[in-house]
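Predict structure. Input: Ferredoxin, 68 residues.
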Amino acid sequence: MRVSADRDVCVGAGLCALTAPAVFDQDDDGLVTVLTPAPEEQDRPAALEAGGLCPSGAVRVAEEPSEP
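Output follows.
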């Protein structure tokens, strides 16, 4: 899993940081900061939820292809 965020479209709602605090934070301006671009297994469900909750679509969560 790879997590990224587009700070140019972030509106500072903070749902990402509230939902997945091990993966996301907010800077002093309230904009998203990715703490862990490749979350640990236990943090992945929260990261996925945060991606779905982001009102501006700034948070992106992508599954990496499995290795054969």
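Residues 22 and 68 are 29 Å apart (CA to CA).
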